[in-house]
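Input/output pair, single chain:
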Amino acid sequence: MALARVVEFENVNSESIGQVRAQIQGEPPEGLPASEIVVLHDAAAGKALAVVFFDNEDDYAQGDAALSAMAPGDTPGTRISVTKYDVVARRTV
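Output:
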């Protein structure tokens, strides 16, 4: 079953979200076997959500370790929560 790592950030500004966009559109980070990455930004509230999808538990564990090891300056803001979810339905139209 696919899994999602959902991270909530606060203190996110347009400049930092632009850096995230550039990173995601470039080469994937080393040690991140993600199948998809979605980043949502609420500019008015200064918040963002990053949803990273993994195909299986092993990929999730490897990706979680890589993302958890990121320096605070490499994230779009202050990380306030990290939650693991089972992906029960997914569709791209």
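The chain has one domain: 3-85. The mean pLDDT is 93.
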